Amino acid sequence: MKHLPLNTNYGCLINNSYMYYGLVGELYVYSDNLNIFKYDKNKLVLLKNGVEYLRFEDNLENDGLLVRTVGNNKLYIKNNDILYMETTIKSRRIEKGVRSLKYDDNFITFDIECYLGEKIGDKEIFKFIPYACAWYGANDNKTYTIKDYKSWENMLNELLNLIEKKYNKYTIYVHNLKSFDSLFIFKTLVKRYKTKVLFKNGGFLSIRLSTNKFINFNFKDSLALLPLSLTKLNSSFDTGVENILFPYKFVSENKLDYEGELPLYDNFDPTLKNLKKYEKYEALVEEFKDKDWNLIEETKRYVNSDVESLYKIIDKWSKEIYEMERINITDVVSISNLALKIFLTNYYDPDKTPFHIMRHKQYKEIKESYYGGRVEVFKTYGENLYYYDVNSLYPYVMLQDMPIGNATLSTDPDLNNYFGFCYVTVKVPENTYNPILPYRDDEGNIYNPTGEWSGMYSSELLKLAIEINDVEITVHYGYKFDRGKDIFKDFVEHYYNIKLKSKDNEVLRLLAKLILNSLYGRFGLRHQLTKTEFFNRE
Question: Given pLDDT bands bounded at 50, 70 and 90, which one contains residue 388?
């Protein structure tokens, strides 16, 4: 680069019909050992001692600005001075998804019930001991209790034997797989299978089990796919399965043979605050007024109702999704994963508005500009107040222009030339009321202060800060992107309309709301994932 002139004076023209590897153009002598070959009006080759040194392209704009392109780099030159430089950072484009050709109904549901066993160490932590489990499929179901086996491991192994024979290559849904229950059965699973675990926030999202005998099935957390309690889902999906009240607190090892009076209400609701539970309990008091209450029989009834309702919920949900989008929910592990797959498969155009996966260095820098929603109290007291709520705020934000394509690292000092993110020094006037620029301290606390500091921000937020707060801004460098319009428009409008028109269809309305809000969050995922491995004590 240092050998090139900072203008379009390439030296003395010595041949206007020079042939260079099949190209015809002009040959200039720039210095004793440097020649410049120019062809196709603005394309050039620098030759050093007759050997090609580099290729570049010069474009002279109307205002006298010379834009020189060398590979992925651009120099912006005026009056023989380099004003700023830019480098396009190539990254992998996200491709369009593929629709499923056939609906996948290869799934069953599973649940396991535990009681608190002995204390672990000196802390208030107890072992969870499985004493009952159940599974439910399209044409069959079964409930198991510890009373019929020597140990809970034997009980679980019989279940696994059946799954291998009857439900190989199936997805097995467990509502709240990441709970303590799954941790205590995991050691049984690793004894029998090769395990591939997907972990999130300290809990299991999925556990894929396989052997060398072509056995392969996958436990998944249905709570990650439908992030509501089973009771609420059962009501919303109108499965027709009763939500059974059960006394978790009552169960212990020495009460597994219990048959007698109905346990006291605090065993069903330790908070003693749930009116609906109390009304159900009163119905149970009436039901068991003249007969004994049997723990094992009620456990069977309870766990079977859970797996039956969960199966019917997933059956309805999966059919609705497949009918609308031709996507199988068995191919995903969470609601945000599903929302992304729907968008990439049916609403994304990688040729018109391409998304790229940024390199880690750029991701880390740009991530610094991402702040949570602002939550502050400016007045602590008021009377005759009005409450306002923004309808579908996240989907509304997704309708705005979005950065697309490869990132271009730039030292351009002019904020108006950016659509992307800038590292800047800001000066917010001291008398500013309600400053809009956030600041994150070393401990992660976020403020909206006045004064001077430096940081990475969205170029559009900085422009707004100048307009609203009269902020003084110095751009040090930044990342420019192409401006993508209406990227999420069809997706948002489709699911928003479903939400509006489905007041009488709770399933569709819930589906639309969950998918709308989940896609936004999916694009804010961390770049690095935690890898979890399990080892024997030995």
Answer: confident
pTM of the model: 0.86
The reply to whether 393 and 274 lie within a common domain is no
- DSSP, collapsed to helix, strand or coil, labels residue 479 as strand
Supply the pLDDT for residue 121. Answer: 57
Residue 538 lies in a domain: no
User: Which of these, 310, 44, 267, lies nearest to 175 by C-alpha position?
Assistant: 310
500: which 2 tokens?
């509006």
347 belongs to a structural domain: no
Asked whether the beta carbons of 25 and 40 are under 8 A apart, the reply is: yes
CB 84 within 8 A of CB 410: yes
d(CA 302, CA 461): 53
Alpha-carbon distance of 490 to 341, in angstroms, equals 15
Number of H helices, E strands in the chain: 12, 25
**CA-closest candidate to residue 110, choices 74, 134, 128, 131:** 134
Longest CA span, the chain: 114
Which of 290, 296, 291 minimizes the C-alpha distance to 250? 296
Co-location of 115 and 236 in the same domain: yes
* Residue type for position 131: Y
Residue 212: predicted pLDDT = 75
Convert the pLDDT of each residue in 85-104 to its tens digit: 999 999 999 999 999 999 99
Return the minimum-mean-pLDDT range out of 53-57, 139-143, 205-209, 447-451.
Answer: 205-209
Q: Does pLDDT of 394 surpass 90?
A: no
The helix, strand and coil proportions of the chain, stated in percent and rounded to the nearest 5, come to 30, 30, 40
Pairing outcome for strands 420-428 and 472-484 = antiparallel
CB 471 within 8 Å of CB 437 = yes
Three-state secondary-structure class, residue 508: helix
What is the average pLDDT value for the chain, to the nearest integer?
Answer: 90
pLDDT for residue 132 = 93
SS3 93: strand
The reply to whether 20 and 136 lie within a common domain is: no
DSSP string across 289-343: SSS-EEHHHHHHHHHHHHHHHHHHHHHHHHHHHHHHH---GGG-SSHHHHHHHHH
Bridge-based pairing state of the strands 194-200 and 203-210? antiparallel
CA-based nearest residue to 142, from 154, 130, 159: 159
The number of angstroms, rounded, from the C-alpha of 179 to the middle of its chain's C-alpha atoms is: 21
Range of the domain at 151: 107-320
Would the pLDDT of 264 be above 80? Answer: yes
Q: What's the rounded Cα separation, in Å, for the pair 302 and 244?
A: 6
Last residue of one domain, picked from the residues 320, 340, 371 = 320
